[in-house]
Amino acid sequence: MGSTGTVLRELRGAQKSAKGVSLYSRYVNRPAGRVLAAMAYRTGLTPNQVTLVSALFTYSALVAVALVEPSWTLAVLVYAALAIGFAFDSADGQLARLTGRGGPDGEWLDHVVDCGKLLLVHTAVLISFYRFGELPSEAWLLLPLGFQLAAVVTFCAGLLREHLGKAAASARGPSWAATRAVPVSRVRAVALLPADYGVFCLVFLLLGAPGAFRAGYAVLAVVHTLFLAAFLAKWFRELKVLRAG
């Protein structure tokens, strides 16, 4: 087992493509995940165990949102746990590529945890609104449901786009896929920032000011819904092109 520095260098060489990744994930979450992956490697954790550590941090934070009265202390603790959980979510894949221990079971577990996270985060906000929100109107209770719908549809549609695209590209061979490779774009990386889960987690720093939290959460809900519409149109066009060959 090499030194931590050696492991970090090997992890840098085992990174996924930056295509379609926001600046936050590229320059904050992936580097943080790389450090956590190196620590996990040094302590002998498996990629699936790292996935479960990610779930522990994330789900614990969201249960706290639902059950604990909002405060500035809660805001900091929840954000820290969500950010750490997200970094571990990056670390599991990096560790799998480093050790060659990745597989369909690990990918399945990672997606299950991610799907549960998307369902629980907005459910937790809904419960917090109901229990502690002192809402101007009960209509606010519909907001987390709408945000949840946009988040889950984006997640599921994105996964389907990825897997259907890989299947079509594989059927046509690597040379066909290479002609349709899209270069990494910094403009796109900036544009994707509002849709990044790590940026979304920042809104929980406003938990100590319920009105500000509601406003920030509502803005993000609108932004994510607009992104969903754009993504669905883009992915549908891309799949039509793949069908046409």
Secondary structure topology:
Elements: H1 4-12, H2 23-43, H3 47-67, H4 72-99, H5 104-132, H6 142-172, H7 174-179, H8 186-191, H9 197-201, H10 210-244
Helix pairs in contact: 1-2, 2-4, 3-4, 3-5, 5-6, 6-10
Please explain how this structure is put together.
The chain crosses the membrane at residues 139-160, 189-209, 215-236. It comes from Streptomyces badius. By secondary structure, the protein is mainly α. The protein is built from ten helices and no strands.
**CA gyration radius, whole angstroms:** 19 Å
In one word, what is the shape? globular
What structural class do you assign from the helix and strand content?
mainly alpha
Described by strand count, sense and barrel closure, the largest sheet is: none
> Roughly how much helix do the residues carry, as a percent range?
over 70%
Number of helices: 10
- Cα distance spanning the termini: 46 Å
What fraction strand?
under 5%
Number of strands: 0
Reading the helices and strands in chain order gives HHHHHHHHHH
Overall residue-averaged pLDDT value: 88
* Sequence stretches where pLDDT stays below 50 over 5 or more residues: none
Family: Belongs to the CDP-alcohol phosphatidyltransferase class-I family.
Transmembrane segments: 139-160, 189-209, 215-236
Protein name: CDP-alcohol phosphatidyltransferase
Keywords: Membrane, Transferase, Transmembrane, Transmembrane helix
Quick recap:
With 245 residues, this protein is mainly α. The chain has ten helices and no strands.
